[in-house]
Amino acid sequence: MDITQYMQALGQQAREASRALARAGTDQKNTALIAMAAAIRASAETLKQENAKDLAAGKAKGLDAALLDRLTLTDARIEGMAEGLEQIANLPDPVGEISNMNYRPSGIQLGQMRVPLGVIGIIYESRPNVTADAAGLCLKSGNATILRGGSEAMYSNQAIAACIKEGLKLADLPESAIQVVETTDRAAVGELITMPEYVDVIVPRGGKSLIERISKDARVPVIKHLDGICHVYIDDEADIQMAEEIAFNAKSHRYGVCNAMETLLVHKNIAKQALPSIAARFKEEGVELRGCAQTVAILSDAVAATEEDWDTEYLDKILAIKIVDSLDAAMEHIHRHSSGHTESIVTQNYDKARRFLREVDSSSVMVNASTRFADGFEYGLGAEIGISTDKLHARGPVGLNGLTSQKWIVLGSGQIRR
Q1: Apex CA 129: angle with CA 128 and CA 132, to 5°?
Q2: Which residues neighbour 342 within 8 Å (Cβ) at sequence distance 6 or greater?
Q3: For the chain: N or C, fewer Cβ within 10 A?
Q4: Higher per-residue pLDDT: 245 or 70
Q5: How much is the pTM?
Q6: pLDDT tens-place string over residues 385-415
Q7: Predicted local distance difference test score (pLDDT) of residue 380
Q8: pLDDT band with cut points at 50, 70 and 90 for residue 364
Q9: 103 φ/ψ angles, rounded to the nearest 5 degrees
């Protein structure tokens, strides 16, 4: 296979399909989504059989238990894919929505209309359910998409792709509206991210090395985040019981996710009172605590933190703790070490909360809440294509609106500029 020719062909087909999707109405898109869900349920045994091939190959390659778990399609996960598509069908359609209409002195009426981005390339690893989720979100937002899953899920992804095509066909939409790359050749990624004539945006979902490579080499705009170094700051005017619950949930609800707390900041005036009970909760969970010198003096079980700890996304049962002198010191630490994902302050002081919201420059900033809420479902988006820590276009959880943009529309009655 000539990879360049193959990817160019996918790109051209996607560009043509994007025009058809721009014409598609909400009912037609929803019909496709519901038909995809039905096809996935009807093909459950086939999906598991194809998934078994990927699992066998993964075990032969020595994939670890965590990767194999993410790769596995169980009955519950297959049903989850189907339900996810149905949930997307029930979400409001953002395409064509008109806002900010107003009359200008000339008599023209001016507003903004929400429109698809066009063609979205999505590059992801391991989890085959992303194939269905991404396809559904892109379709509902009116975008054609090219999906390039990891080689470890090739059989699973192609089986899901067959269900997607069945849904598109039933709704009389072009099958090329959602294309799953059929080669494991890594050169396909290099082609996909350098086709600005066909692809409007790239969304990478995977490890840091993958996202760094795509960000470096892409000639197409990228919606991404590299790390989830999230902070919780316990202020000296915090409710200690509330602070303990928030900190424990932010770290221990799930460890291997990008919105888990990695560094806990505690005001010096409250540290001796708050830290022992918080540390006891973490000890019960087997969480290793790495602290600054002041922290180690208070917590005998904590080990000394290094400078590297403040810049590490552990995704594991490890937590860095630092005692700070003030709100300003906490915000300065966040400014220096945050990845721009999510930060939270626990305080009963309204003015401090307002300062934190204004001055902390992350995609989600919270007051008296766990960082685990930084999620598309929790934000009422229904689903998300990922989290963006970029500042342009989309920021934070990216749902249907994040997969669209706005264009200006002008309504006149014969006006000419004088």
Answers
A1: 110
A2: 228, 230, 259, 362, 363, 364, 365, 366, 371, 374
A3: C
A4: 245
A5: 0.89
A6: 889 999 989 999 999 999 999 999 999 999 9
A7: 85
A8: very high
A9: -90, 140
Task: At 327, list the tokens.
Answer: 């709100």
pLDDT digits (tens, 9 = 90+) for 15-64: 999 999 999 999 999 999 999 999 999 999 999 999 999 999 999 999 98
> Phi, psi at residue 231, to the nearest 5°?
-120, 145
Among 275, 266, 263, 262, which Cα is nearest to 235's?
Answer: 266
Residue 67 pLDDT: 87
Please provide the DSSP assignment of 222-279 as one string. B-------EEEEE-TTS-HHHHHHHHHHHHHS-SSSTTSEEEEEEEHHHHHHHHHHHH
How confident is the model over 189-242, as pLDDT tens digits?
999 999 999 999 999 988 888 899 999 999 999 999 888 999 999 999 999 999
Cβ-based neighbours of 394, under 8 Å, separated by 6 or more: 223, 388, 402, 403
* DSSP sequence for 159-204: HHHHHHHHHHHHTT--GGGEEE-----THHHHHHTT-TTT-SEEEE
DSSP string, 280-315: HHHHHTT-EEEE-HHHHHH-TT-EEPPGGGGG----
pLDDT top residue among 380 and 228: 228
Residues whose CB is less than 8 angstroms from the CB of residue 222 and which lie 6 or more positions away in sequence, other chains included: 193, 201, 202, 203, 204, 214, 215, 390
Alpha-carbon distance 348 to 239, whole Å? 7
Residue type, 251: K
Q: Which residue type, as a one-letter code, is found at position 182?
A: E
* Neighbour-count burial of 231, counting CB atoms closer than 10 A to its CB (0-12 exposed, 13-18 middle, 19+ buried): buried
Q: How does DSSP classify residue 346? A: E
What pLDDT score was predicted for residue 377? 84
The set of residues, in sequence order, having a beta carbon less than 8 Å from that of 323 and lying 6+ positions away, is: 265, 266, 267, 268, 271, 291, 292, 294, 295, 298
**What type of residue is 58?**
G
Alpha-carbon gap, residue 212 to 310, rounded angstroms? 20
Distances (CA, A) of 335 to 21, 362, 369, 393: 42, 9, 20, 22
Neighbours of 271 (CB within 10 A): 22
* Per-residue pLDDT reduced to its tens digit, 260-307: 999 999 999 999 999 999 999 999 999 999 999 999 999 999 999 999
What are the beta bridge partners of residue 273? none
- 378 CB-contact burial (10 Å; exposed 0-12 / middle 13-18 / buried 19+): middle
